[in-house]
Design goal:
Helices cover 75% and strands 2% of the residues. By secondary structure, the chain is mainly α. A hairpin with a 2-residue loop joins strand 1 and strand 2. The protein is elongated, with a radius of gyration of 39 Å. The protein starts with a helix and ends with a helix.
């Protein structure tokens, strides 16, 4: 026996090294599958909770726009597409397809969610633009009022000087009164607080949803469609989900 080992020690050593390398490789692959299963299982649970939350945003056939704005994105990376090749032979075709449908429906729901939030953000910018336009109008109006007051004042003074220069004092006084009354309708009262008051009024109107918000009906219809499809999957009860969960809980 020892003679055999002595004569073939190099081959035996090579076999041991090869076997060790193979064992390490198999353990690493097993660990990869376990980690992939854990990620998928965790994401499936998060997707189901997220879809249930979005479903709660539809009350009496209407969307809760505020809730949509505050909601979180369903998922950013599709772990199923990334790691599903590990489970092709571990899950039957029906359950494999069911999990794939979950991700398909979740993607469609998320697309509507992103569209809704995009419309909301765009509406905020439109409101800000409207506020800026209205305030610009108020500023120009104030400037015009101030300019008109000065123009009318100058006009009154020049007209009075031209007409009354050659009249006696009593007649000149009477003419001055006539001129004052005739040009009174062009005199605009100057109020330093008017611009501030108008600005606050504009903000109050905007905050009271003075500007009409519009969200396409198709968003609600699409959400209802894919949430209903999702509800028919019953992911937790499938053997495929149970298998992934079991693999994710392996110690090594």
């Amino acid at each position: 026996m020892w003679d055999f080992i002595k004569e073939n020690w190099s081959n035996i050593f090579l076999i041991i090294v090869t076997a060790s390398a193979l064992l390490v490789y198999l353990l690493q692959e097993r660990r990869k599958i376990t980690e992939a299963a854990a990620l998928i299982k965790m994401q499936i649970d998060e997707l189901q909770n997220g879809i249930a939350e979005i479903d709660s945003f539809i009350v009496d056939g209407k969307l809760n726009f505020t809730a949509f704005y505050e909601s979180h994105q369903l998922f950013s990376e599709d772990y199923w597409s990334k790691y599903k090749h590990y489970f092709v032979k571990r899950i039957d075709a029906k359950d494999f397809g069911t999990i794939s449908k979950l991700y398909e429906y979740a993607s469609e729901i998320q697309e509507q969610q992103v569209l809704m939030k995009t419309l909301q953000k765009n509406f905020f910018f439109v409101c800000q633009q409207n506020i800026s336009n209205l305030e610009t109008t108020e500023v120009l109006k104030t400037i015009n009022i101030q300019n008109n007051v000065q123009l009318v004042t100058d006009y009154q003074a020049k007209l009075k000087g031209a007409v009354t220069s050659e009249l006696d004092e009593e007649t000149a006084q009477a003419v001055s009164e006539i001129i004052k009354k005739a040009t009174a309708e062009y005199v605009f009262p100057s109020n330093s607080n008017s611009l501030t008051d108008n600005r606050q009024q504009i903000l109050n109107l905007v905050n009271q949803q003075y500007f009409t918000t519009y969200y396409p009906l198709q968003i609600k219809l699409s959400l209802e469609k894919y949430i209903k499809k999702y509800s028919l999957l019953e992911i937790d009860g499938t053997d495929g989900y149970k298998t992934i969960k079991k693999i994710s809980e392996r110690r090594f």
